[in-house]
Amino acid sequence: MKNESQRTEDTYQYVPILQSLKALLQHDDILAQVFQGHQCGTGRISSFTDAQLYNDHEFFKRYPKALQIYLYFDEFKVANPLRNRGEYKLGGFYFLLGNLEPKYRSKQHIVQLACLCKVTDLKHYGLEVILARLISDLKTLETDGIEFYHDGRKFHFHGTLALVVGDNLAQHFMGGFPENFSTSLRLCRFCTGTNELVKTSLREDDFTWRNQEGYNEQANTVEVHPHLSSVYWRETAFTTNQLENFHVVCSLPSDIAHDLFEGGVVSVRLAIIVCSLVQDRHFSLKLLNERIEQFEYASCDRSNPIPPMPEQIAQFKIKSTIAETWLLMRMLPLLIGDKVPEGNDVWELYLKLADMVECICAKSYECGEIEYMGEKIVEFHESFHEVFEDTLGAKDHFTLHYLKQAKLFGPLSAFSTNLWERKHNEFKQIANRSKNRKNICLTLATGHQFKQYLQFEKDQLLEADVEYVKGNAVRVQALTDDEQAQLQPVLTGAQYIFKAASCTKCGVKYSCGCAVLLSYNNDQYQFGKIRSVFHVNGKDLLHCTVLQTLTYVRHYHAHQVEESPTSLLVEVEKLLDYHPLGIYEKDNMSLIVLKHFVSADRD
Fold first, then answer.
1. For residue 472, with 0-12 CB atoms within 10 Å meaning exposed, 13-18 middle and 19 or more buried, which class applies?
2. What b/e readout covers 447-468, taking b as 16+ CB neighbours within 10 angstroms?
3. Angle at alpha carbon of residue 589, lines to 586 and 590, rounded to 5°
4. Euclidean distance between CA atoms 266 and 166, whole angstroms
5. What are the structural domain ranges in the chain?
6. Domain 467-592 sits in which CATH superfamily?
7. What does the alpha-carbon distance between residue 41 and residue 101 come to, in Å, rounded to a whole number?
8. Which of 113, 139, 293, 576 has the fewest CB atoms inside 10 Å of its own CB, making it the most exposed?
9. Is the whole model's pTM more than 0.90, yes or no?
10. Phi/psi class of residue 281: alpha, beta or left (left: φ > 0; alpha: ψ in -120 to 50)?
11. Nearest to 395 by CA among 226, 490, 260
12. Are the C-beta atoms of 162 and 69 separated by less than 8 Å?
């Protein structure tokens, strides 16, 4: 690309997506995931392939084993942000094979680099120029597909761009929608509601969803009358719409990480709730900070502790990271719930907010549970408006569309940008090590691809990396009688067994003392407390004390449990939910707070 003003060559880096896909598919475990395909008839919405967009998509009907490409875009800096050097602000386009089960997508080497460019070049030349080669390759993937040989067999796959993932600014940039959410006439990429209607309307039925026909008609209108671009969108060039099987109107899912936790609904509304409780003299911000400092986290919650809060009402804002804000919302009742009387109107708002977030963050739904989530979203916004008479912001409005989006895309937690943003750290590390800024995009892309090459040399890309703490071989006779009794069916005469204090599997750590979710019986969750971890015949087994669930304590948004004399041995893969949970003591009660809603009959 020629920059006439500087008489220099502007460059960007593109990693051919067709070659990357062939390299991925040379691994048996990746191929197995693609051939596993869509499991019909479960009656649940657990992934994109269970949702409406996939099942109504003509391309995926024609090619059931088609490759599903998730494209991600975001801007990031690789230099000290205090220097404010714009030339080191980069735009990264990554992609992920959506055919993989969600539990495998957390591995960073599974996320592939597609394109890397300077943001200044992206703004100057536009998406159409920067993504020209990517779009060309995606068209080839749609029409001709890719062919390759593996273990002497010939394979042929078609594929297409299924979704574009990113935060709101990135999504609106990719789709050509307004990027100024405060002044734009129509600020939502999902509906045609005006700015004024968005601020006042609390129900999704008050809005008309965008459709492809209306979008294309408006695009033609803006092409003839460019001055109308401020009414409809930012620009008239919509690169990804050049693909036959993709359209931005129905393929830009929400990012709950930013909608809720980073400057979103939770951080803003929770700050208002806390300030209101402080002004009503239920507790002080100083007391809140003291309890935050003294709080004893369970091992599963220890990695992102809650930071201190400002101690002046006028300055109180929640500016924590996504993980820290999520943890603050879950732990708030354990921190100061005892200072707030039951039935308090403002505290009820917090409980409704916690209910809403718990439903939104679920990993799997039935249709009725999606409707329940929609009800909880509307209930919170209506109650909050009734108490504080506050208008809705853009992110509040986006949550009103979550009900339809969950049906369209599947669980929105699968499209959170947490996973993708961690990829930025790889490039920042390469930049710090190289000390080379002359052609920063080339340096980073080359370093990244060398690292990917080392990963691709492995026979298996998806194998679980299991780490054990304080693990060693123990004589079976040295185990407790209860442990021996539980392990008897799997020992098969072995004299020694591997025992550990904890194990980390697929990025999730299971430690002694934490709780796991075993089942759902008699309208209550059944928890177990991990006593020890065993590895037998390639399986990771948790020896648990069964916890009897006494009741759900709404004021603390937690389940009260107590230990029972019963124990059992459970395989990690057969847990009702794979997230370990902390057990906390409060007011002489043992309490467990869920991270997200878990369906009673998960597959």
1. exposed
2. bbeeebeeeeeeeebbeeeeeb
3. 90
4. 19
5. 2-167+418-456, 259-389, 467-592
6. Bromo adjacent homology (BAH) domain (2.30.30.490)
7. 18
8. 293
9. yes
10. left
11. 260
12. yes
Contact 525/559 with Cβ under 8 angstroms? yes
CA atoms of 225 and 223, how far apart (whole Å): 6
- Looking up tokens 């569309």 gives 401
Rg (CA), the chain: 26
Mean pLDDT of 213-219: 79
Read off the amino acid at residue 585.
E
What local confidence, expressed as pLDDT, does residue 511 receive?
94
Other beta carbons within 10 angstroms of residue 404's beta carbon come to: 16
Helical spans, DSSP H, in 295-393? 322-336, 345-360, 367-388
> Residues 495-500: what's their mean pLDDT?
93
With H, G, I as helix, E, B as strand and everything else as coil, classify residue 57.
coil
Residue labelled with tokens 């691994």: 27
Per-residue pLDDT at 237: 43
Pairing type for strands 159-165 and 67-77 reads: parallel
Q: What are phi and psi of 587, to 5 degrees?
A: 50, 45
Look up residue 92 and give its two tokens: 């990264």
Residue 384 contacts by C-beta under 8 Å, 6 or more apart in sequence? 269, 349, 352, 353, 390
Phi/psi region, residue 589 (left: phi>0; alpha: psi -120 to 50; beta: rest), is beta
Taking residue 167's Cβ as centre, other Cβ atoms within 10 Å add up to 22
Place of tokens 């690789």: 78
